[in-house]
Amino acid sequence: MKKIAVFTSGGDAPGMNACVRAVVRAALYNGLEVVGIRRGYRGMAEADFIPMESHSVSDIIGKGGTILKSARFDEFRQKEWRQKAYDNCVKEGIDGLVAIGGNGTFTGAKLLMEDFGIPTIGCPGTIDNDLYGTDYTIGFDTAVNTALDAIDKIRDTAASHDRVFFVEVMGRDAGFIAMQSGIGGGAEDILVPEIPDSMDNVIESLKKGGDKEKPSHIIVVAEGEGIGNAHFIAQKAKEAMPNLDIRVSNLGHVQRGGSPSAIDRILASRMGIAAVEGLIDGKSNVMAGIIDDKVAFTSFDDAINKKKDLDVELNKMVEILNS
Ligand code: F6P
């Protein structure tokens, strides 16, 4: 292994830059050459490579987004695009790849590996925290804190007006951001896809809040919630309880931005170094995660296909904390 490439792909996440920095510095520390690929698989297929030196990653550990840029590139499902990408890697003399991203990124890496055998290690970078094989993904902690800050602010205005708020947070099909920001923000209810909910339960929760004369009532809704999105649920709640003053706030992409938290910077740095060391040790087709505070490698297959469980017991806490 003489030269490696690093890229970020899929939805960006705070801490991706810290991970790029760790990969570059760990590669240089181990005597490897390193290049960056801009815009993930698109850049690989279009030969958008940039040489990375130590100074290329100076002052980026605290920056949100990704200096390498990111893209969702569905064309990579087609072999002809993977062939182009592989040919470009060969021309560039690349012996191994570090892919920073989520499920889609690792699916692409796995296909590339199966087609051409180019050694690849993944670092889990997504705010959703939905990857099996790591306790936390890069960006999740920052996203939770961003959502929490918003919920705190919504609480101020909700209490001033005696209002009910449905706050929708990201997470794709997973409820990790909703559960943690909801508990941290003292939400009266949290709706996540992992736990079956019904409008009856939502109305019940609103009635309980009314009985206790709570000045505000916040229900955090994960974007993948089974009943529907926050607007739909709010509309149904208004039909059932027309006297309530209800508002909806969808936090959206604000959750993807911002300076990464200390936890994300350190997690990203550990994972980036682990990925480079893994490549040097001959590992491939695996994700470098952290389980119980120790580096752990999990096959792309498992990281993509096995479901990471949300601790549904946390929901019990919500009930207790609202009694
Ligand atoms: O995977 C991260 C994520 O932010 C999800 O939470 C969300 O469903 C999705 O990406 C949004 O993607 P886009 O920015 O492409 O609309």
TrEMBL record:
<feature type="binding site">
    <location>
        <position position="247"/>
    </location>
    <ligand>
        <name>substrate</name>
    </ligand>
</feature>
<keyword id="KW-0324">Glycolysis</keyword>
<feature type="binding site">
    <location>
        <position position="11"/>
    </location>
    <ligand>
        <name>ATP</name>
    </ligand>
</feature>
<dbReference type="GO" id="GO:0030388">
    <property type="term" value="P:fructose 1,6-bisphosphate metabolic process"/>
</dbReference>
<feature type="active site" description="Proton acceptor">
    <location>
        <position position="128"/>
    </location>
</feature>
<feature type="binding site" description="in other chain">
    <location>
        <begin position="126"/>
        <end position="128"/>
    </location>
    <ligand>
        <name>substrate</name>
    </ligand>
</feature>
<dbReference type="GO" id="GO:0006002">
    <property type="term" value="P:fructose 6-phosphate metabolic process"/>
</dbReference>
<dbReference type="InterPro" id="IPR022953">
    <property type="entry name" value="ATP_PFK"/>
</dbReference>
<comment type="similarity">
    <text>Belongs to the phosphofructokinase type A (PFKA) family. ATP-dependent PFK group I subfamily. Prokaryotic clade 'B1' sub-subfamily.</text>
</comment>
<dbReference type="InterPro" id="IPR012828">
    <property type="entry name" value="PFKA_ATP_prok"/>
</dbReference>
<dbReference type="GO" id="GO:0048029">
    <property type="term" value="F:monosaccharide binding"/>
</dbReference>
<protein>
    <recommendedName>
        <fullName>ATP-dependent 6-phosphofructokinase</fullName>
        <ecNumber>2.7.1.11</ecNumber>
    </recommendedName>
</protein>
<feature type="binding site">
    <location>
        <position position="163"/>
    </location>
    <ligand>
        <name>substrate</name>
    </ligand>
</feature>
<feature type="binding site">
    <location>
        <begin position="102"/>
        <end position="105"/>
    </location>
    <ligand>
        <name>ATP</name>
    </ligand>
</feature>
<comment type="subunit">
    <text>Homotetramer.</text>
</comment>
<feature type="binding site" description="in other chain">
    <location>
        <position position="212"/>
    </location>
    <ligand>
        <name>ADP</name>
    </ligand>
</feature>
<dbReference type="GO" id="GO:0042802">
    <property type="term" value="F:identical protein binding"/>
</dbReference>
<dbReference type="Pfam" id="PF00365">
    <property type="entry name" value="PFK"/>
</dbReference>
<keyword id="KW-0067">ATP-binding</keyword>
<dbReference type="GO" id="GO:0061621">
    <property type="term" value="P:canonical glycolysis"/>
</dbReference>
<dbReference type="GO" id="GO:0046872">
    <property type="term" value="F:metal ion binding"/>
</dbReference>
<dbReference type="InterPro" id="IPR015912">
    <property type="entry name" value="Phosphofructokinase_CS"/>
</dbReference>
<dbReference type="GO" id="GO:0005524">
    <property type="term" value="F:ATP binding"/>
</dbReference>
<keyword id="KW-0021">Allosteric enzyme</keyword>
<feature type="domain" description="Phosphofructokinase">
    <location>
        <begin position="3"/>
        <end position="278"/>
    </location>
</feature>
<dbReference type="GO" id="GO:0016208">
    <property type="term" value="F:AMP binding"/>
</dbReference>
<dbReference type="InterPro" id="IPR012003">
    <property type="entry name" value="ATP_PFK_prok-type"/>
</dbReference>
<comment type="pathway">
    <text>Carbohydrate degradation; glycolysis; D-glyceraldehyde 3-phosphate and glycerone phosphate from D-glucose: step 3/4.</text>
</comment>
<keyword id="KW-0547">Nucleotide-binding</keyword>
<feature type="binding site">
    <location>
        <begin position="72"/>
        <end position="73"/>
    </location>
    <ligand>
        <name>ATP</name>
    </ligand>
</feature>
<dbReference type="InterPro" id="IPR035966">
    <property type="entry name" value="PKF_sf"/>
</dbReference>
<feature type="binding site" description="in other chain">
    <location>
        <begin position="253"/>
        <end position="256"/>
    </location>
    <ligand>
        <name>substrate</name>
    </ligand>
</feature>
<feature type="binding site" description="in other chain">
    <location>
        <begin position="170"/>
        <end position="172"/>
    </location>
    <ligand>
        <name>substrate</name>
    </ligand>
</feature>
<dbReference type="GO" id="GO:0003872">
    <property type="term" value="F:6-phosphofructokinase activity"/>
</dbReference>
<feature type="binding site" description="in other chain">
    <location>
        <position position="155"/>
    </location>
    <ligand>
        <name>ADP</name>
    </ligand>
</feature>
<feature type="binding site" description="in other chain">
    <location>
        <begin position="186"/>
        <end position="188"/>
    </location>
    <ligand>
        <name>ADP</name>
    </ligand>
</feature>
<feature type="binding site" description="in other chain">
    <location>
        <begin position="214"/>
        <end position="216"/>
    </location>
    <ligand>
        <name>ADP</name>
    </ligand>
</feature>
<feature type="binding site">
    <location>
        <begin position="21"/>
        <end position="25"/>
    </location>
    <ligand>
        <name>ADP</name>
    </ligand>
</feature>
<keyword id="KW-0808">Transferase</keyword>
<dbReference type="InterPro" id="IPR000023">
    <property type="entry name" value="Phosphofructokinase_dom"/>
</dbReference>
<keyword id="KW-0479">Metal-binding</keyword>
<keyword id="KW-0963">Cytoplasm</keyword>
